[in-house]
Amino acid sequence: MNDQSAGKPRGGVLTWALWGAAAIGVAAVVYIIAQSSTKPVAQGPAGTSGAVATAPQTHDVAKKLEHPADGSAPPAYVFFDDKGKKLTAADFKGKVVVMNLWATWCAPCKLEMPTLAKLAQAYAGQPVAVVAVSIDKADALEQAKAFIAGNAPLAFYNDPDAKLPWALKPPANGMPTTIILGKDGLERGRISGEAEWSGAGAKATIDRILAQS
């Protein structure tokens, strides 16, 4: 996902739009849906018509990693497991946590989910937790549960109020967003948009954070 439309950067506008959307409830979900489905638009040179080719977007985790030396604590925001138990990111302290925020209406989220499942498989028995948190509302809950069930060994987690993206500092740019926490519980980086979590870049990133914390 790229915060770019009609060839113009939208970074500053996006930050304020997120906070504004958070303040008006339902509009927040509408905004995230728009961001998750938007692709960069290529335009020709000034005064010409037609599109020009754009560089392909990389999905390599090592290349997309943002805030690699952040070190900030995650929000003490409550989400739920499949049995309704209340959890926060702090409950996973002691493990490297790959916390993925996703939704059934987000196509890139669903595309990358099988690679997150492969990541979880690759680190089975090691102190690594892949925590995929759905921000789907109640009317899509069963659909979200069924989707995760098809991506074993991932477990189902849900944020029914869909406010976790704004609880992050800085707030998420859209869906999917993935936060990586060290074993000390502090942020070690994040990915905005779809990524290839079963690739060499992901393994190198997780191995490095495992060695650090």
Describe the protein in words.
There is one protein chain. The protein is of the alpha+beta class and 213 residues long. The chain is built from seven helices and nine strands; from the N terminus they run E-E-H-H-H-E-E-E-H-E-H-E-H-E-E-H. It has helices spanning 11-23, 26-37, 61-64, 107-122, 141-149, 164-167, 200-212; strands at 4-5, 8-9, 79-81, 86-87, 96-102, 128-134, 157-158, 177-181, 187-192. The protein has a seven-stranded mixed β-sheet. Helix 1 packs antiparallel against helix 2. The radius of gyration is 17 Å and the shape is globular. Residues 1-56 have low confidence and may be disordered.
The radius of gyration is 17 Å
Please count the beta strands (DSSP E, at least 2 residues each). 9
The number of helical runs is 7
Largest sheet: 7 strands, mixed
Average pLDDT over all residues: 80
Low-confidence stretches: 1-56
**Structural class computed from helices and strand pairing:** alpha+beta
Sequence-ordered SSE layout with sheet pairings:
Elements: E1 4-5, E2 8-9, H1 11-23, H2 26-37, H3 61-64, E3 79-81, E4 86-87, E5 96-102, H4 107-122, E6 128-134, H5 141-149, E7 157-158, H6 164-167, E8 177-181, E9 187-192, H7 200-212
Parallel strand pairs: 5-6, 6-7
Antiparallel strand pairs: 1-2, 3-4, 3-7, 5-8, 8-9
Provide a compact summary of the structure.
The protein contains seven helices and nine strands; from the N terminus they run ββαααβββαβαβαββα.
List its salient traits:
single chain, alpha+beta, globular, disordered N terminus, 33% helix, 7-stranded mixed sheet, two-stranded antiparallel sheet, 213 residues
